[in-house]
Design brief:
The protein folds into two domains: 165 residues, Periplasmic binding protein-like II (D-Maltodextrin-Binding Protein, domain 2); 111 residues, D-Maltodextrin-Binding Protein, domain 2 (3-Layer(aba) Sandwich). It contains ten helices and twelve strands.
């Protein structure tokens, strides 16, 4: 009887995990997620999520996983901490093809190899378009290829992915030690810091994710950090939209593969029920599928 009971219990738990993906057995799932609103939204002290609007990606995690802990870490550090197993997952890494990974490892020898070790979800958790340019409102500049950037001071985020052509251009700029043309920031509050540099004319262009930077501009205007309408979206690199995922640690492969699968089941359940659309509408985000 004991064997039958254990087998029955196993079947019940298995079916529960399939039809109710928010059930996670065992311990709390820890996810490193940097301050990147409207995906991950933290309050002023940058330690706690905004209760009423923690970010659409956070709300997706909370709807899928029963017990999840979100920790605010800069993206690169979150990647490193997940890689060594201190966190179960890092939020919003990109996926790369084998050819792209070769370039990524050459261009970013410290961070590139981590992408090869993460265990990814099949389903994406957010749209991404980092190849968009922001300018002061009196600027008529538009992106018309790599040559249109030359002669301008560009503010970006270090170790971000901007597409093959731009990555190669940035690699050349770095190789000649030109820290005026390419001004890369690391750490926290990068969108706000880059936009303040733009407003004070310390850079001519800022490059970043369309949704993220537009959100930060609205918040800066709301909090009267910059005058309303003083900064604007100039243009985006054509065909530069991509998707972001969750990367689980390879230090616990069985657990990570299970959690990855549960996420894939969970986001489809949210999509079919209409709950995903409800979350996305709250943040003015369109479904990427």
């Amino acid at each position: 009887m004991r064997k039958i009971f254990n087998f029955t219990t196993f079947i019940v738990i298995l079916l529960s995990s399939l039809f109710c993906p928010e059930i996670i057995m065992g311990k709390t799932l820890t996810i490193a997620a940097w301050d990147f609103c409207p995906s991950h939204c933290y309050d002023k002290n940058k330690k706690s999520l905004i209760k009423e609007a923690p970010g659409f990606v956070i709300e997706i995690y909370q709807a899928i996983f029963k017990d999840v802990q979100i920790v605010n870490l800069p993206f690169n550090r979150g990647m490193q901490e997940t890689d060594v197993g201190r966190f179960d997952a890092v939020s919003l890494p990109l996926k790369f093809s084998k050819a792209e990974l070769k370039d990524k490892i050459r261009q970013l020898p410290r961070m590139g190899p981590i992408y090869t070790r993460l265990i990814y979800t099949e389903k994406a958790v957010a749209p991404y378009n980092a190849s968009c340019f922001f300018v002061n409102s009196d600027s008529n500049w538009k992106y018309k290829g790599i040559d249109s950037i030359k002669g301008n001071r560009l503010g970006t985020t270090m170790d971000y992915e901007y597409g093959k052509k731009l990555n190669a251009f940035f690699e050349k700029v770095r190789s000649r030690g030109d820290k005026v043309t390419l001004q890369e920031l690391t750490g926290s509050n990068i969108p706000e810091r880059n936009l303040l540099k733009l407003k004070s004319n310390r850079v001519d262009l800022v490059m970043g994710d369309k949704n993220g930077y537009q959100y930060v501009i609205k918040q800066m205007e709301k909090n009267k950090i910059i005058p309303k309408g003083s900064l604007k979206l100039s243009s985006c690199v054509p065909n530069s939209k991509t998707l972001l995922y969750i990367g689980f640690t390879s230090r616990r492969p069985k657990e990570s593969k299970r959690n990855s699968h549960l996420f894939d089941l969970g986001i489809e359940r949210l999509r079919k029920s209409g709950k995903l659309q409800e979350i996305l509408l709250k943040y003015d985000i369109q479904d990427w599928e």
